[in-house]
Amino acid sequence: MIEVSELTKDYGTVVAVRGVSFSVGKGEVVGFLGPNGAGKSTTLRVLAGFLGATSGRVRIAGHDIAEAPLEARRALGYMPENAPLYTEMRVGEYLTFRARLKEVPRGKRVSFVGSAMERAGVTHMAGTVISHLSKGYRQRVALADALVSNPPLLILDEPTAGLDPNQIREVRALVKDLGSDRTVLLSTHILSEVEATCERAIVIDRGLLVAEGTIDELRTRQKSSGLSLRLRDPNAAAEAAIAAVSGVSVASAETDETAPDRRTLRLTVDSALKTELVTEKLVQALTGAGIGIHAVVPELATLEQVFSALTRHEQETDNTVASVTNVARP
Amino acid sequence: MNGFLAVYRREVLSLWVTPLAWVLLTVFLLLQGAIFYSIVTHFTSMAEASVDTGPLQAYFGQESIFLLMTLLLVCPALTMRVFAEERRSGTIEALLTAPVTPASVVLGKYTALLTTYALIWAPTLLYVVILRKTGVVDWGVVGSSYLGLLGIGAAYLSVGTLMSAMTKSQLVALLLTIFVEFGLFILGVGEYIFDPGVFRDICAHVSMMSQMEDFSKGILDLRRIVFDGSVAALGLFITTRVVDSWRWG
User: What interface predicted TM-score (ipTM) does this complex get?
Assistant: First the structure.
């Protein structure tokens, strides 16, 4: 549904997006992730046709947005950041206007507006003037607006920004529901949102694509990984045995209170080493020292850790980020 | 075309559900009423009236400076929000990501403004009805006078639309519009200041006052219409380019 290749957008001196390429297939729900100011909104605005790309190509549902902008825009429902609406209009009035603008045929307008309001949960607010609505309802009206022409593709820019936890849960459920019969690309800087609603995520930072993949793939992309060991170690000799294996250090050690010979050790493994190799060596060293191994558990990184590892750039230069980008591209 | 109609309908609705159009209508009618009242009382106190002048000719023609001054107030106030407000509140993003061309957005909004302008003038038809009770009304003069006003309005509203597209601030749009429209108006006054020559001719051609004086006598000068139309078309063309240029901002 979306194909972006080498997209660059600059605002005069500031380069907001540099050479980003990704694609979103039909029926996918994809999270567009990045810290504030990473270039998320700029990218989505280019996709929606509000901004022109400085260079690169974007195709929406097979239409190049530079060559066939109207066809491309017909295929998508876009919800801008902060849900801008005409506050002097009533909800029903506004959505009817939007349906007319989006070329919904006259005969279908009432039913399309009705079903969009129903899915977004604003049917009972149809007669309310938008300026009287709360932030949460405005967000939903904007969502209904994106839905009103029943487009196969939805692009939502921070659909849950500024909502309270209950509303966030509702909007997430709605997005998930919408994802069942159409393609959704949504941006957010909240990771749990991606974990809750998306199958796949694209991470950008400072205008560069830093990672792309399914949520599980991203988890495994953390820079330093961890291992957790459960041992039978009556003489507390494990540390000495582990010290002999290079690239591994003990982060914490606990002794089980009920059984003093049972210990749990948490290890950090240097990201340069292969975890499989390290595990093998560890097991050999420990069994060699006469220690019983009950469990070796690789620690799954949370998306939060991955995210901060990917977007942390105090020590990194642009070049290293760029090389990460290259690795991330399929 | 779809987009044009949708934008047009929304714009008319939004002008009339907010206080702006009503406030302008009230102020406008108060001023016009005062002008018309003083002209009529002036004529009733006159011992004899000449054939080619009457309250209507004076209102639309000789005394049109008052009428044009109120337009310098009303037109910029009508146009100031048309794009500036959309950009300030961000609704322009939703508007321009719909499958509509910049030209249909600009034309839809402009036509809505022109409709509102015409609606604001509509009650002044009552003046003609009142005059008809006491005398004979030349409907040709009435028709050409309103055509002249529509021409001036078309030009002024186009300039205002352009200025509103240039800035996110309604106040700046208002001031810019007044500045340009007042400049256009003053240029016409040059007809009475400069010695006969090319410059005076130019001033006479662009003079809104001379335009109204001609039209109020029933003289339909095509050059006037062409001038108003050209200003309107140029303004709308540049506005469309400006709207298009936001993509590259």
Answer: 0.87
